Every structure is written in structure tokens, then in C-alpha cells.
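Hi support team,

I submitted a single chain yesterday and got back a structure, but I'm not sure I'm reading the C-alpha cell output correctly. Could someone confirm the output below corresponds to the sequence I sent? I've pasted both exactly as they appear in my results page.

Thanks,
R.
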Amino acid sequence: MGLGLRSVWPDIVLTDFNETFAPVARLDTIITLIALAAQKGWKLWQLDVKSTFLNGVLEEEVYVDQPDGFVVEEAEDKVYRLRKALYGLKQALRAWYSEIDTYLIHCGFHRSSSEATLYVRNKEGIGALIVSIYVDDIVYIGRSTRMREEFKTEMMCKYEMSDLGSIFIHQKKYAKTLLEKFELKDCKPVCTPLVATDKLQREDGSKAADESLHRKIVGSLLYLTATKPDIMFSASLLARFMHNPSKKHYGVAKRVLMYIQGTIDYGIEYVAGKSALLIGYCDSDWSGSEDDRKSTSGYAFSFGSGTFAWASVKQQSVALSTAKAEYVSAAEATSQAIWLRFVLEDFGEE
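Hi R., thanks for writing in. Yes, this is the structure output for that exact sequence:
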């Protein structure tokens, strides 16, 4: 732990809350890795770091009281100085990121300029090893079995790890849990998440619904969008009515769950052998919001096979024509496409 007793300084309180932020991998990056692995026919592996935050070395001077039951006799007036982070410490996450970042660069990895948690190591004649970090989870892919095994051995020698093996994205069990939680496991499924002619607005004349229950449903639906782009628009639309939802809003949320009942086996397939071509689609409605007449943009990208990046976002300004709404949507999709190109270039895909 790297603890050292120090005398207490009377009447002095030092609080250091600077530099507590640490980057976390974007979901788009993780799914891009999966799509690339499928397209190349590579295996995807995951390592889990045990006691993650205890590995971070602190740059600041941080002191803690002696814990109850472990007070040193005749030194009760002293405190511990932390050399390494502890769980609950505000600097812990950043200290861990700094530790793993330094180690990976020391091992010959290059950090992506587009994604701070993405690292690539190239070896001539062998290929590339691509690593993505999400707090204490490390996902990696590569063509060379030798490079993958070397990396796993290096990491397990440096940190205490669990080898979780190959990764498979799956939310079917979670979807079933939702249907049971909201008492819809035996409901009749519907073929679409929304009725095309229905328009939602804040004041629709219906009675108020249970705000807490509505928020739980919408929050669960937003989590499901990680693997179900088909409910992205409906989930983001319902999220606009988290405060003071009406019975109609609640009914629409339940309809989306009924749609999930009928599509619970649906998923995204990533097929090997397809051409490595980045393809994007974008669209928008015009004045779709009944409350402020703003439009909604949407985009979806594929790479060889299944969709791996998608979004549905309300536009910031009111579009005075359908053309402007489409231009705004295209601009947002273009920005995402540029970022994806940068990430793919880091993967070695030109």
C-alpha cells in the first residue's frame, strides 16, 4: 500500500481536488473493435485487472486517519501518507489511468490521438496488436497469436489479472429481466416501437404518470441501445419527458418494451470476409418536436457488415426548411465519420 506515518499538523486542512478526471473508452470504439475483429476473423479477448485502483501511484501528498482497529500504539496522533491510491479516493481513477498509460507506452504501444484509451503496437512482419481500456477492463485484438499471448503474459506479470477469454456482446438476458421487472414478460409483442402517427409533447392532456417508474423504464431502454440500434430513436425521444411524464408517455414506454418482447432474439451480426468499407447513412425529420419545433438527426455506420456506430440526437437549432434539417444531420454524421476514420487509421485500416 505504501503507507507512512506522519505527525498531524494542527489547524491545517489541505484538500486537493485537481486532476481527478480520467478518460474512458467510448462505446463506439469498443464496437468498432468488435466489427474489425469480425471482419478480419480475429479473436477478441478481455482481461480484468484485480484491485485496479490500488495500483495507481499518487503524485500529490494525500493523508488519511489511521483506520479503527489498526491504530498504532503511542502514535495515535499520527496519520498515514498514501503512496498509492485507495478505493473512494478522488484521485484513484486518474492515478490508475496514468499508471497503465505509462506502462503501455513503455512496452512499445502508441496511444491514439483520437481516443485516449486506445493503444496500438506494431511489429514488422507480424502485424498490429490493438488494446482498448475501460477502467479495469482491457480488451485486445490482433492477428498474431504470439503477440496476444505475449501481451497477456506481460500484463499478468505486471498486475494481478483475470483472463475472461473471448467477448460476446449479449443483452438478451437483461431484456428478459426488464420485462419481468415491469411485469410484461407475458405481454403481446408489437412489430414497431412507436406508432408512426403518434406525436409526443409535454402537455398532452392526459394525467400524470409515476415519474420514478417512467425514469426507470427509459433508463433501462437507453442501456439497451448499446446493442439495439432499432430502439435508439424511441429511447432518446422518451428521454425528453423524464420530468413530469404523462400517462401517454408511460404508455409509449411500455409499447417499446412490448416491441422488445417480439425482438428479444434480434442482434447485430458481424461477418468475416466482407470488404473493409466504412459506410454511413444519415437522415432527419423536420420539426419533429411538438414543443419547440426542432428536428431530430440520426446516423448509422457499418464496416464490412453489421452496424457499429449509431445515434439519434435532437438538433440544437430550429431548421426553417427540410434542406437545413438534412444539412445539420449530414454535418453531424460527417463529424462522426471523420472521427471513425481516425480511429480506423490507428487500427491500421487506411
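A quick pointer for reading it: The first strand starts at residue 3 and ends at 7. Let us know if anything else looks off.

Best,
Support desk
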